[in-house]
């Protein structure tokens, strides 16, 4: 009698193919709960094994995060990092030392810098978020948002939170009880072992057990399977054993040349603060994989982090030759043009993003700024209105109000500017730039004490910015507090060595002190 409907295992596989992982896992659970008599035995790969393997993969896919793209460096990992190679690196060879700019990027007077001392990029990605703070206090005081260089409290903590989904997957407890698994037995079955490894690594976040399984499996494969070597490398990387990870990735590359492995190995070098080695690795990779977008993009990112903006822009253009819808490249080239005083060209890039269907607060915010500086005033306010409407959190709203404050200063409406900067602080109380600009407005009204208090707040929130230090120095000098003025001017010079006004002020103060 012809039964309608699909065979359950095939149905589950169909769900998996259509990325309906929850339904797939539920159907596999039903198959696994059948009494043993009903399960027809295949020669080697029984229905039970197939259902088990499929459910493992479905549960993994639900919480799967691509390891290449996440790079969270916690406060503990940064401050207690023992992998430092050179304490005093040569200029242009380290990501940790800001100010080693080679390619003449725009000065901090034009392009704002992040806490790590690098110019802000056009695109938020993991590495732009983990700028190295110089002190523990600064690391903890920086607000934790996606837009700042505040490190996460601990990277391992982040992974644990990613993995807690596993307890929800079924109410009777975890699907696979890791403590009772005989890993050696599974390592003998390559088909099951790979699914099980991904489950342990991504879903349960148990790196140690995953590493044990991978070590047994690679031994069973007589060290000839490159896939296991990459997985062992990933485990070592998570455990902070970067040199061991490097060995595994190199060995895997010898056996099987893969773009992914090159990207993992470059991550190891960047974590060890060897950007030049990573650059060479990417360039060698491009000889073997010409036109591979991820590799070109990797080179561009490193140049950008090393403050070599012109080279970065060249490589981002190469990315667009291969893939003209690459959002990161378009955004970075756009922001580069904007800060190079070419808002009309930047506007073309951001309009391109809009045509591609990117529709978010950041894009309209940038469009509003480009329109303002390109003197297309009719579009400026409507762009900012739309940005406010699309803002997903208070930090984004604060950014938009801050930029509206700038527009108000530009058209000479200082009362409106004052209101906008105040609204910025309502939404984000740690917005150093807004404190600095409010102080300037207070100073114009002759409120010296308020201005000083605001500048002190700004300089403590953002020691990497030179403006609050410089303004405080000027203000203190005007009211005759020369000692404080000199201290602040020195901080300003440290933050931006090329600032002429700071140098003149320091020279004047030194002459004063010499006369005393």
From TrEMBL:
One Gene Ontology biological process: non-motile cilium assembly
Highest taxon of source: Eukaryota
GO cellular-component term (any): non-motile cilium
Gene3D superfamilies for the chain: Tetratricopeptide repeat domain
Region (Disordered), start-end ranges: 97-139
Classification via CDD domains: TTC8_N (cd21341)
Keywords: TPR repeat
Ranges of Polar residues composition bias in the record: 126-137
Residue stretches of each TPR repeat: 432-465
Family matches, as SMART domains: TPR
The protein, known as: TTC8 protein
Organism: Campylorhamphus procurvoides
């Amino acid at each position: 009698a012809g039964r309608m409907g699909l065979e359950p295992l095939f149905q589950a596989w169909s769900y998996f193919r259509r990325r309906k992982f929850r339904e797939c896992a539920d159907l596999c659970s039903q198959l696994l709960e059948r009494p043993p008599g009903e399960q027809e035995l295949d020669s080697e790969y029984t229905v039970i094994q197939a259902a088990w393997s499929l459910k493992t993969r479905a549960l993994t896919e639900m919480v799967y995060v691509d390891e290449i793209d996440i790079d969270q460096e916690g406060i503990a990992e940064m401050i207690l990092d023992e992998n430092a190679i050179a304490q005093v690196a040569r200029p242009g060879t380290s990501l940790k030392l800001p100010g080693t700019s080679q390619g003449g990027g725009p000065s901090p007077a034009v392009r704002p810098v992040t806490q790590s001392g690098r110019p802000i990029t056009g695109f938020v990605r993991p590495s732009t978020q983990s700028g190295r703070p110089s002190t523990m206090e600064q690391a903890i005081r920086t607000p934790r948002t996606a837009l700042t260089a505040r490190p996460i409290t601990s990277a391992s903590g982040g992974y644990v939170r990613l993995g807690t989904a596993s307890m929800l997957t079924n109410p009777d407890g975890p699907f696979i009880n890791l403590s009772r698994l005989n890993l050696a037995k599974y390592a003998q079955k390559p088909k099951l072992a790979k699914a099980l490894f991904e489950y342990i690594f991504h879903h349960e976040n148990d790196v140690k057990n995953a590493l044990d399984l991978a070590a047994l499996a690679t031994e069973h494969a007589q060290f000839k399977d490159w896939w296991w070597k990459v997985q062992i490398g990933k485990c070592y990387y998570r455990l902070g054993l970067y040199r061991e990870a490097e060995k595994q990735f190199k060995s895997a590359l010898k056996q099987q040349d893969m773009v992914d492995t090159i990207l993992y190995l470059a991550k190891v070098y960047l974590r060890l603060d060897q950007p030049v080695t990573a650059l060479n690795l990417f360039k060698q990779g491009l000889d073997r994989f010409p036109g591979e977008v991820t590799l070109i993009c990797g080179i561009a990112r490193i140049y950008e982090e090393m403050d070599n903006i012109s080279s970065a822009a060249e490589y981002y253009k190469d990315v667009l030759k291969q893939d003209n819808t690459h959002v990161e490249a378009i955004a970075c080239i756009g922001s580069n043009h904007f800060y190079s005083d070419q808002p009309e060209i930047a506007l073309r890039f951001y309009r391109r993003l809009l045509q591609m269907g990117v529709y978010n607060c950041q894009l309209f915010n940038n469009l509003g700024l480009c329109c303002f500086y390109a003197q297309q005033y009719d579009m400026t306010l409507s762009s900012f209105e739309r940005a406010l409407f699309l803002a997903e959190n208070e930090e984004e709203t604060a950014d938009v109000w801050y930029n509206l404050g700038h527009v108000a200063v530009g058209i000479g409406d200082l009362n409106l500017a004052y209101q906008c900067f105040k609204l910025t602080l309502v939404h984000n109380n740690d917005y150093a730039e807004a404190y600095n600009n409010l102080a300037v407005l207070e100073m114009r009204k002759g409120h010296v004490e308020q201005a000083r208090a605001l500048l002190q707040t700004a300089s403590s929130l953002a020691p990497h910015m030179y403006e609050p230090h410089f303004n405080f120095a000027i203000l203190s000098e005007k009211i005759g507090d020369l000692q404080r003025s000199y201290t602040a001017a020195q901080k300003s010079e440290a933050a931006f060595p090329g600032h002429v006004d700071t140098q003149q002020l320091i020279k004047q103060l030194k002459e004063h002190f010499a006369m005393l």
